[in-house]
Design a protein that fits this description.
6 helices, 41% strand, mainly beta, 16-stranded antiparallel barrel
Length: 468
Amino acid sequence: MGRKHGIPIFATAVCSMLLGMTSLAYTDDAVLGLKNVQITGFGSYEFGQIVQGEYGGAEYDHYWNHQVYSGIGFIATLSDRMQLVGGIEGKMWNAFPLANYTVPATRTNTEQQFSVWVTEASGTYSFSDTTNKVSAKITAGYFPYKYNPESRNLGEYMFRSFTYPGILMNSFDFPAADLLGVKANIKINLDAIQISNDFILSEADATWPYGDFSLAYVGDCNIDKIVDIGAGVDFANYISVNENNTTPVALANAIRDDSGNIIQPIKSINGNDTTRDTSYYTFKAIKPMARLTFDPKPFMGDLGRMLGSEDLKLYGEGAIIGTQNYSYYYNNIYQRMPIMFGFYFPTFKLLDMLNIEFEHYSNPLSTCTKNQTFEWPAPAGELPVCIPIPGEPPSSGYNSLSTAEDNSSYAWKWSIYAKKTITSHVALTLQLSRDHYRVNFSDGYPDYYEALPYKQDWMWTAKISGNI
């Protein structure tokens, strides 16, 4: 992303996008074969506080947090069947002030930061039969993906989680995932019943092991707009481009017994034995998911029509972040099963939505991601590699729930979300939460640790946004 030289790269990217879209807008559509080009854009200011949180044993105490976003893009319709979408987004923010907590101030961690990235670069080709009862789309490239339409903050576990260790991620006002790959969608219209099927091949581009491919299926069945049932499974990192990255042959990654002692592999640590999958922890995982939404408004007649489109919806989602047990770290499948549920309060269209969500995830391991970013201390003679074990041992203390007096109370997360559209182009958003938030450092990447690990921690975030 070129984060250390964010201003010139951001300016270059924006100018390139503007020039490209301007050329599309002013070029004869007949020459390009275009039917329509829509320019999109947005800007937003986010601000808020970590009212109480944790960092490296120190406490966040009303820590102020803000950032400015701006994005621009296009939707180009080439024909009735073909569409291209592109977009970039920039961010301006102040990095977490480490000087206030654990290390001296430097220019890098106190100055204003800039960053830019691609939000979408995809093409979609559509098919349909003459009756429009069956339709299909193939999308390829880099695109956002969301399978739980009701979730506002928590959930979306299939594509927003590390597997081994089972770490969950979320972003404010973006309850979705960015995927690099190919998606085939098939929809079947049976009038009162709508069935959707997504078949996805995606490449790991934001989490280790980079380059590995995952195969996933997500199905959805909507019955008369009253009940919506979804299910899916992700075979994460099952197509490895480098087996030594997917299942690292390293002493630190050797499987341990339930007492924490390394089970001596059949071979010496040299990477030549074909039985390593039984001797080492792996990033490969199977992640099944199920979800359910109930909307009672169709039963309510005129009263139901007075309510907003999301009002009174009750929904939930559950997943298993890795079905395979491994001794010591991953010997209890129930500790890898996040479950969330949410409800939309009736606002009678005074607000776009008012939502509350709860999540229970009794993972007792540290949320630290150092072992997935080359930060673990490699033994003498071994090269650093990312390994699929927690960033800190279960007995380490900080951000490790195994040391909590009552793990069940720490396992709960919650979120309250409200949104109001002021005009057709301006909206206000407010969220109060104890979720999986991580602060951003000067390089633009999130902290190794969650900022809100304990039951008394919480934060609030507000946003003013506009779009075209």
